[in-house]
Amino acid sequence: MEYLTILLSLISVRISSITFMKRSVFMQLKWHKFTMVSVTCFILFSLFASNIIKPNYSHAATSWSEEYDATQGTLHNVETENADTGYFGNGYVAGWNEDGQSVAINVNVPSDGNYTLVFKYSAAAGQATRYLEVNGEGSVDQVRFSGTGSWGDWQTTYLNDVFLTAGTNTISLSFDSGKGSENWLNFDSLLVKEQGVEQLVSWGLTEEAELAQKSLTSNFWNTKTNMFNNQYPNDESNNQFHYWWQAHAIDTLIDGYERTGDYGYIDQAIALYKSVKARNGDDIRNDFYDDMLWMALALQRLHEYTNNPQHEEAVLTLWEDIKEGWSSEFGGGIAWNKNQLDYKNTPSNAPAVILATRLYEQYGNEEDLQWAQDIYNWLQHTLVDPANGLVWDGINRTGDGNIDKGWEFTYNQGVYIGASVELYQLTGEQGYLDAAIQTAETTKDRFSNHNQIIYEGGSGDGGLFKGILIRYVTELVKTEDSQVKLAEWIVNNAKNVWNQTNEEPEILFGSSWEGAINLPVELSQQLSGVMLMEHATQLEPIIVRNVSQTLQEQIDSYVDDSEITSSLAKKLSNRLEQVDHHINKGDINQAIKHLEDFNKHVQTGVEKDQVNEIAYHQLQGSLDRIIH
């Protein structure tokens, strides 16, 4: 009864806080009774889940910390400002984009040891990098700062394991183009804190993925429009219709269904599609070829689970319209916009390859396969750097025939990876897989910061970019599970962002997957975060299975070389058999428990001289990927 009272109170608060979208024409949609009940129950449970059953994650407190105003440091060739609010101290360092500019801050720490440095900054011009020195010695060539939505959007990034001596130390950030420094940056403050042991998110992220989905519904779903609001908290921004954001929302709901089998996700996706079409003048097409591709890909997945001919018809209608965007100008390619047919970009071509390939697999129409191959070949030869697989954005945007090589976005890398994977799966041609792997490895290096967190910040449309990348890197790893380093990269991003978002009253995902979460949070940003959590759950079993296989290979070699006794090897192999058994059942938590038992047997084996020191340390190195 107490929970019911809490639930009703929460529902009342939620309903009273919603500002419904204003529309000139209101269309009353008649739902099937089952659909209406399913969606209503789904939303009620979302409120319950996100507000009542949210798990409690604790973080170990640090015993000492001190924050320093960057404007009080020693400044070289930089200015200070205080125009944007929300800064610490007297203002912030600004006008910082040239060699010879630096900020040096003297900090005092109580004892020798490793500390964490937390930099508060804003970077509205996009991601930036700076060179870090500690006590006059180079420490990190590129401290990477995610782009922020505005100069008043303050974010944080951190560095662990920075050794400082008791007393005064000098922390210096400099612009050094020779070491890769780039872009503008406003630097507000430096927080120095003793390095505590933070409780990491445990393996088995399905609960976190579910809570992320529930938050998406409880904080963004508008029960009057049957669409997602553009931001949380809701305001007048919902008067703007983001067709392609809603397409990715359909995709994200289907992710939830595929994880849980809960048809409520499909019911909500069906309702969303109906409302998007109605809001779009009862026509699923629009003037942007990339927008239509996102919608076609989402609806193709939806049709797979509904078998609704209306969804199938929408996909085919979109595809016929999309193909009209192809022309021979600049050698081929699909245009970005019906009103700018000579501008062709990656997001209007790579997703077309994915769609055409899937249509061929569904219907067996050879023409679709030819489309996929022709578009892919044009894209690869026109907008992909052959040296490293980096995917450029587009050609002839400004009418001068130039390629936007300076526009580097994660989603362009993602959709090219996805296109390559689809053609590899269909044809078996190794070149497609090699192309996907090359681009993925370049992306991991180029778009990760010093903590291996994807540091492309994003607001507006850019808020979706990282999530799109995650979707298609996941498809690559599922196709080629030897790419386990990519899987670990994504899962570590998920754990990092969950540690961050869990500190908020709601489960929210901001522009940065490392720094502060500032309200309002846009739907695009929230969708990327939910996609990250959903796809991390798909990759965890691949990582655990890989660790298990590595351990078994090590044990076999140790037995052959008499570095481990046969009795201990048998016990360890039995544990690994249980790991694989539970992974195959989809129970990753039980698999982890058996790895923990494996570790206990190894520890006992050391005490009894059943395993030598070299083998022991090698086994621990493999286990450290899972058990810390």
Automatic annotation (TrEMBL):
PROSITE patterns: CBM6
Domain of life from the UniProt record: Bacteria
Sample GO molecular function, one term: carbohydrate binding
One Pfam assignment: FIMAH
GO-annotated biological processes: carbohydrate metabolic process
Domain CBM6: 66-193
Protein name: CBM6 domain-containing protein
